[in-house]
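Table S4 entry, Phage major tail protein.
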Amino acid sequence: MAGSTTNDSTMVSLGKFKVGGYAYWAPSGTALPTDSSTPLAAAFKLLGYLSEDGLTNTTDTDTTEIKDANGTTVMKVITSYAESYQFALLEVLRVEAAKMRYNSDAVTGTDKSMTIKHQMPSDEDFVLVFEIAMTGDVKDRLVIGNATRAEFGDRQVHAGDAQVYDVTVSANDMGNGVTAIEYIGVAASASESSVNAEALTGKVVDQVNAEETAEPGEETPAAE
């Protein structure tokens, strides 16, 4: 179906996150999700709350200009591209959050009872998934398939504010130059059920099918 030819306020969305859990990570090599709704693999661990600043996606590009003899720019091309994501973890007593900040091998123990070794971070790579709740019950699942730690913000300890683990990760090449993929699930009632998933510039729209229900008058078979 062709896109709308008029402005549509239902296409505008806030950037809220899924209630109950929305930031997950897993070791490199974990099976990546390929849609917005299939449950994540068991290897994914919850990182807990993000701070009120949420998630910030930053891009870094280099360009090359080609000029003629008069100094007029006749071509300008992008020669390099990189993406990073910054977030601050609020649950500093969660062991998985501490591992995200300080490295998996630098933290031992359990939630509220752990030992953290402050040391030079390794080049550990991992997978990140963020579950975003778009306006109108539309799901946006952001998958960073090859992430590494890049920078860390200050950690302030005082009575006025919550402590946070402020982390910036590099979104490295997942293959074919892709640094991250978004799977956006459109409710079945809002579009044709025959629409196929289509990838464009790293953004994928997938169809979330409604569960089948018994027709009126039919009995639902009892579970054996």
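The longest strand covers residues 73-89.
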